[in-house]
Amino acid sequence: DGSNRLWASGMETYISTQKNDRFEYADKLFPVLKWIKTKRECLDIASTKEGNILMRFMDGDIYHIRHDNFITDSIKIPVVHDEIKLEIGTKKVVYDSLHNKLYLNNENAIFQFDFSSRQMKPLISEKMFGKIETGREIIDYALDAEGRVWIWLPSYGIRIIDPMNLTCTDSIPIGKKGL
User: Which of 99, 105, 134, 177 has its CA 20 to 30 A from that of 120?
Assistant: First the structure.
């Protein structure tokens, strides 16, 4: 984090500081973090460009922990029922440090959270995926170095989404360009 601590999490959350040479329970080193023990398993952990910590637990919420004072905000994922039947495989936290945006997902939608405006926008829509006529598909996503979102759609290929206007700027169909 921004205070030169290393964080590790799973069933338990550990922190290593410059003062010690090993990991300790987060709540043992910093009692203000005892709330972490009330959560179930941590699914993902990341750091922002400011050095703050982003943690996602089994409850689905994202916790934004400020490294300098441990003040924590929660970022709730909205429930959206989209007519496109997609299932996002892995519940994760994907942070874009270039644009200061967070990408997160629930079972059937991907969202972009803008730290500057505090706005949450869904990424599932026809303007990004076109007309998909299919049964339920499991998809995955990642960011490239320019902050574009690459979304893998089985049986279709890859859609590349612009982070600023959330439209599909390119696509790579299966069977072409190496897929």
Answer: 134
